[in-house]
Every structure is written in C-alpha cells, then in structure tokens.
Specification:
single chain; about 425 residues; alpha+beta; 6-stranded mixed beta sheet; about 35% helix; about 25% strand; Gfd2/YDR514C-like C-terminal domain-containing protein; nucleic acid binding
C-alpha cells in the first residue's frame, strides 16, 4: 500500500489496510514501528490512547456495509488516521507527519450502504470482532435476493431510527374469526420525534357494533384485556373509526415521515382499505429520512433478517417477542399487539448491525436453534488472516504505554523498546 503526503477526500479506510500495510510502507522504518505500536489492539483500547472518546469504554471504530456486496468491513475514519499522524509528530515520536495512505485506499460514502460506530472495550474484544465480521461475510456468499433485501432494509431501519425524525406508528386490528370483514378492535402505539425529543402516544378502540361477535374457536378474545399500564380502552362506533384512524395518521405526519409499523402487514393493510382509509404508502425503505411520506416497516421482515431466514415463512408476533426476550401478556388484543410490535421494532432498530446483533443475542450459534438458515462457507480471498475458533493474534501484538513512552510486545512483556 503506497503512501503520499496529502489527501483531498474524506471517508474511511479498511482496518486491515491500516493495521497490516500502512506502517510497512512509510519511508522511515522507525516511524513505522511507532505507528504499528499505536495501532495495536490493546493500545487502541487504552483509555489514554489519542483516539479515545470520553464516555466510550475502549476504542470506537466503524463498521461499513458495502453497497454492491452487502459485506461488512471494520473501518477507521480518515479523521482518525489523520489525527494519529499529527499526534505522533506533536508528541515528538516522529520527525514529521507520517504520509497518508493513497486515496485509492480510501472508501467514500458512495461505496458504502451504511456506516455505524462500533465500540470495543479491550484488545480481545477487537480481535474477536475481526473474526466475527469475517465469519459473517462468509455467510453472505450466495445469499438469495429475498434475504439480501431483508438485510438491506434492516440496516436502513436502524439508520432511520437513529436519525430521530418523523413518527413511528405501529397499528394492529382484530376481527371476527368467522368473517374478517367484521373489525372488532383497533390499536396503536406511536413514537414521534420533535427536535430529538421523544413523544409517545398509544390507545385501543373497541368497535361498538362488533361487541357481540366474539372469538374463541381459532384465536382468543382479549378485547377487554388492554394492559392497564398502556391506558384505557375506548368504545367507538364503526362509522367513526375511519376518521379516527385517518386523523391519527395525519397528526403523525406533522412530525415528518410516517413509518407505519406492522407485524406482517398484508392483513392490516386490507383492513385499512376495507374501512375506507385512503393511504399512499411505499414498501421501499429509504436510505435517509425523507421530509414526508408514509413508509411501511414490517417487523416480520426484520426478525427474518436477524435470523437469516431466506424463505417466505414469517415468525408470528409471539414467537418474535420470545426470540428477543420480551415478555408478553394478553396478545390478540389490538392495543397490546401494537405495543409489542413497536417494542420489537425498537429492540432491533436500536441494536447493532444485523450480523453483530445476531451474535450478541445468540452467542456461539448461527442463530436460535432450528431457525437460522444462514450457514458459513469457506471462501478464499479473505481480507482477514484467520477464521479459526481460537482467539489467535491478528498480526503482531505491539503496544504503546502512553505514560512511559515505551513500546512493548504482548507475547513477551519483558521486552520493552523505548521510543525516541
């Protein structure tokens, strides 16, 4: 990897390019040794490392998802790389700023579908993350388009939720089991964002004319079991329900784009149409938050992406809640179901990147037993050196003691190479 002294672009560098190649290509070998020590796993995670961020335990790096392949890479930002070279000179550890990597090594935002921060509390966590990312990239080989689309939407929902804009409105209907044109309940749970502040609104409506139509044969009838902590049920005439729903969605639009959150949206959209609620919606989830619009977000697709399922089968809401370790009570009440639908969406959207989140939720597995359909494949041409299960070193493990100014090797703590 060649170097040069200036850069005109900003973006991200692959962690592997910086760790394995940058130090070996600088003109002064002594500067290369110092640079390698500063980039060592344990040194990066030290609280006194120059890249340390107050309030973050360990090191903060980035995970980027490539636009074309969907593969993930651990990244340094160009700002971090630039800061290291000037900090080393300011501390007298190099005589001049170390040349930057060539701009050809730089990844611009246009090449990346998404970029998120990732924190690693110690060197061991960082080394394991490198292996985990590579394992997950191998799983991506040969994915069918359906699963790839789910994975893309999962990352887009994470990005949109993190933006804290618009309204996220989960809605649910219940109907008479013998005739689905008889709507018995409507429920909603909503989070709106105004200047970064969260505003919540939820409720449950029982349709007056349908009170005599009870369920018991195929599904339980819990219309009077709306959770006390969420509010009180209202009884409304069917003729008023259309206006109530339309006004709810219009009020949500005052905050910007409305993300209509369903768990398996097909039937609920039919209910809306049946009631005469006219909606112009899109199932295409954007990369960035639009100024307006009504966008469908389906939590059954999100859990499918998280589980790595590539079939048309969808997990029910109860099973989804169990998988995400969320306790439920009185499901099949429209208000409760809307609440749990929004809750599981937030749980997934506020978590880490899809592969990292899967490993966190179900460690040492490809996913929950008998659910995950993504399996590792051995592929050549890896960016990383090892995919063994053991916690082996990734490159030489040099460290830098910021207090004493001493370089050290983790494989032999007795060997200390003074700087300067």
């Amino acid at each position: 990897m060649a170097t040069k002294s200036s850069v005109t672009l900003t973006g991200y560098y692959r962690y592997t390019d910086i760790w394995f190649d940058w130090s070996s290509q600088v003109p002064n070998p002594e500067d290369g040794v110092v640079l390698k020590a500063m980039l060592a796993h344990d040194a990066l995670c030290h609280p006194e490392h120059p890249l340390h961020i107050d309030g973050v335990e360990g090191a903060q790096l980035y995970i980027g998802i490539f636009e074309e392949t969907g593969e993930a890479r651990l990244l340094f930002s160009s700002k971090q790389v630039d800061y290291i070279r000037y900090w080393l000179q300011a501390m007298g550890m190099t005589h001049s700023p170390i040349p930057l990597p060539y701009s050809d090594c730089l990844l611009t935002k246009g090449e990346l579908r998404s970029v998120t921060t990732a924190n690693y509390k110690d060197g061991g966590a960082l080394r394991r993350a490198i292996k985990d990312i590579e394992r997950n990239n191998k799983r991506l080989k040969g994915l069918n388009p359906t699963l790839e689309a789910k994975r893309q939407n999962f990352e887009r929902v994470r990005s949109l939720w993190a933006a804290k804009k618009g309204a996220w409105l989960a809605i649910d209907f219940e109907a008479w089991e013998m005739d689905h044109t008889v709507v018995t309940e409507f429920g909603w749970d909503m989070v709106c964002w105004k200047n970064g502040e969260k505003i919540e609104n939820r409720g449950h409506i029982i349709v007056q004319e349908a009170r005599g139509y009870t369920n018991s044969k195929y599904v339980p009838d819990y219309r009077y079991k709306y959770l006390e902590g969420l509010g009180k049920s209202e009884t409304v005439k069917r003729v008023e329900l259309k206006a109530r729903i339309a006004n709810l969605i219009d009020d949500a639009a005052k905050y910007g784009p409305v993300y209509l959150v369903f768990h398996d949206n097909n039937q609920d959209l039919k209910y809306l149409k049946q009631l005469g609620v006219e909606l112009s919606v899109t199932h295409l989830i954007p990369d960035t938050a639009p100024e307006e619009g009504r966008i469908i977000v389906d939590t059954s697709d999100l859990i499918g992406a998280l589980l790595g399922e590539d079939t048309g089968n969808r997990r029910g809401l109860e099973k989804t809640c169990r998988l995400l370790q969320q306790d439920t009570l009185w499901l099949h009440n429209a208000g409760n179901d809307a609440h749990y639908t929004l809750s599981v969406m937030v749980a997934m959207a506020s978590g880490d990147q899809v592969d990292k989140q899967r490993d966190q939720r179900w460690p040492n597995q490809t996913g929950p037993s008998l659910t995950v359909r993504v399996h590792p494949r051995q592929e050549e041409g890896s960016d990383y050196e090892s995919d063994d299960d053991e916690d082996e070193d990734v490159g030489p493990r040099l460290g830098y003691d910021v207090k004493t100014g001493v370089l050290w090797r983790t494989d032999d703590p007795q060997i200390a190479v003074p700087v300067g």
